[in-house]
Amino acid sequence: MTDNIRFLLGHERRELRDVDPTMTVLNYLRLVERRCGTKEGCAEGDCGACTVVLGEPAGERIRYRAVNSCIQFLPTLDGKQLITVEQLKDDAGRLHPVQQAMVDAHGSQCGFCTPGFVMSLFALFHGQDRPERDDINDALAGNLCRCTGYGPIVTAAENMYGSPRRDKFTATQAATLAELGRLQNSETTTVNSDSRRFFAPTRIDELARLMGEHPMATLLAGGTDVGLWVTKQHRRLDPVIYVGNVAELRRIDVAAAHIDIGAAVTYADLHELIDRHYPDFGELIRRLGSTQIRNAGTMGGNVANGSPIGDSTPPLIALGATLVLRSAAGRREMRLEDYFIAYGKQDRRPGEFVELIRLPLPQSGWQFHCYKISKRFDQDITATLGAFNIKLADGIVEDIRIAFGGMAPTPKRALACEAALKGKPWTRAAIAEGQRALRQDFAPITDMRASKEYRGRVAENLLLKFFIETTESGVETRVVGERRRACG
């Protein structure tokens, strides 16, 4: 084991010991490094004022991704490059092309949110050559501003490529890659401070051993939920076991009939593959959070937490996904829908952790659609989410799987509705029966996101919407963007 955290702050090496295991990167930057360009706005990964960029080796280049520093724990920086707004100017003091474009377009007024916007655009600058407007909108969806109305900022994004797409990070990439290579660690990192412990194993067998020794540990993947336990609920977590360095959990394996998705695979790494096979599911992933959240959050974490409004679980259930759990004693596989027992309770034994999600690939004759209903279209928590998967034979429902989120204490299949539809002609009359059956399946609650009456009516209407989309061509049922059919 190793007891220190090593990373690059810009191009300067940092080596830390005895740090608070749940100190956020934001607090480290502001309180320890005194780099105050990074701001705290919401402390929950929603506003983007705290956006920083992480660089990681990706073959012969460095992959730069924007993340929310307010919910990222400091020990997760091990082996990475951390870039803040202070490091963007070149050695002669000239502004970075992103910063200059913001100045030229008058993209800042009060300036509080500006560093976060700049860092999101910096990641885009290094990730895409002249992105389309949709890509710019996606890159900025996680940054909120109350002053400029976004127009000048979008203009800056369009103009930041006016000169060759090159900066000091491009010029020093080879040297930075070499330095990052020297920081890579094949051993378990252990942090101890104030009687609290943080473990970051690199191998799955070591993770299983640690979970056997610490069955009540908090498992940490992207931190998009766990981070809020610290920043909002002020929980004192001990121990924390970070799974983001476990190589086996970061794999995506495509077989003949299914995709194995490691529990530490981020949404950003998964999005393109899912979108290729299930476009509605891909669009749902694009909408479930900001770029910063998708760069950190994992589908495995979303499933493991068992939230009734977790966006990925209803589509996975409707598609017949299974879950592989791992412990020191071995593996067991179950249907994903059986994992959820009650609100806050999942079928995960002491010492077990989610190893992978096994998602079936599309099968001939099946049609899959899903719909997310939320108050805001982008980057909002779901009120109701419906996922529908049907196989028709000569107009008869040969098989059907329907799952909803936000309608029960757990993500849940609509078994009564399925039974009402299976074996019947796929007609409006059958849909009416299915809608009545949904009232047996669910007794939704009223909360801040929707009333129980609204949720019930929406669920019935989503079933009708699915029917229309699978039977009537040329009928527009979606909010249409410039190039996407929206999931809603």
Would you mind describing this structure in some detail?
The longest helix has 20 residues, at 452-471. Among the domains are: 97-166, Orthogonal Bundle (DNA polymerase, domain 1); 366-471, 2-Layer Sandwich (Enolase-like, domain 1). It has a 5-stranded mixed beta sheet with strand order 2-1-5-3-4. It has a 5-stranded antiparallel beta sheet with strand order 10-11-16-12-13. A 4-stranded mixed beta sheet has the order 6-7-9-8, covered by helices on one side. The chain is 33% helix and 22% strand. With 488 residues, the protein is an alpha+beta fold.
Shape category:
globular
CATH architecture descriptor name of the domain at 366-471: 2-Layer Sandwich
**Structural class by secondary-structure content:** alpha+beta
CATH third-level topology of the domain at 366-471: Enolase-like, domain 1
The whole-angstrom Rg is 23 Å
CATH class of the domain at 366-471: Alpha Beta
Summed up, the helix count is 18
Contiguous runs where pLDDT drops below 50 for at least 5 residues? none
